[in-house]
Amino acid sequence: MTAPSALFLRKQLAELNKNPVEGFSAGLVDDDNIYRWEVVVMGPQDTLFEGGFFRAVLTFPSDYPLRPPKMKFTSQMWHPNVAKNGEVCISILHEPGEDKYGYERPEERWLPIHTVETIMISVISMLADPNGDSPANVDAAKEWREDPKGVFKRKVARCVRRSQEEMSSD
């Protein structure tokens, strides 16, 4: 029997294929596993990430949408809200309920109404407007605050170039 989460994910994938959303594309890593998606995020216009094609994997739990997926960039990414290992750290992907640190309100965290589309729109927004108050990459956050047009900009430009090279070599 197919789990409700798998049916829900198949429906979302079919909808995204039928009506693509600007800024990203999505598909399965492996056709036999509906719980692992590859997404490509296009760097938002008028940001340092413009022109980039950043690959990431979304891994969904079997009880999705009750719990959030995990997102990890496989392309190199230099951003305050992306850990050095590529894991994305934004409120919408945090487990539902109260934040034990008191930083996030429950309504900012995961809610079962979220879809791949709302997740990806939040990630694109995060690229355009980092949250320096809650960094996953402290070094990137420090550079973004202290020298956004210098060393931070150069490191992001390197990631954009590398992402373009990766896409053209496929």
Which tags fit this structure?
single chain, 170 residues, alpha+beta, Ubiquitin Conjugating Enzyme, ubiquitin conjugating enzyme activity, EC 2.3.2.23, Ub_conjugating_enzyme
Question: What does this molecule look like?
Answer:
- With 170 residues, the protein is α+β, with helices and mostly antiparallel strands.
- The chain has a single domain (2-166), classed as Ubiquitin Conjugating Enzyme, CATH 3.10.110.
- 33% of the residues lie in helices and 14% in strands.
- It contains four helices and four strands.
- The chain has a four-stranded antiparallel sheet.
- The longest helix has 19 residues, at 151-169.
Report the sheet with the most strands, covering strand number, pairing sense and barrel closure.
4 strands, antiparallel
SSE pattern, N- to C-terminal: HEEEEHHH
Number of strands: 4
What is the overall pLDDT average? Answer: 93
How many angstroms separate the termini?
A: 36 Å
CATH topology: Ubiquitin Conjugating Enzyme
The CATH fourth-level homologous superfamily = Ubiquitin Conjugating Enzyme
CATH architecture, please? Roll
* Cα shape: globular
Query: Structural class, from helix and strand content?
Result: alpha+beta
The number of helices is 4
Radius of gyration equals 16 Å
Query: Percentage of helical residues?
Result: 25-40%
Low-confidence stretches: none
What share of residues are in beta strands?
5-15%
Question: Taking strands numbered 1, 2, ... along the chain, how are they ordered across the largest sheet?
Answer: 1-2-3-4
List the domain count as a whole number.
1
Text of the CATH class? Alpha Beta
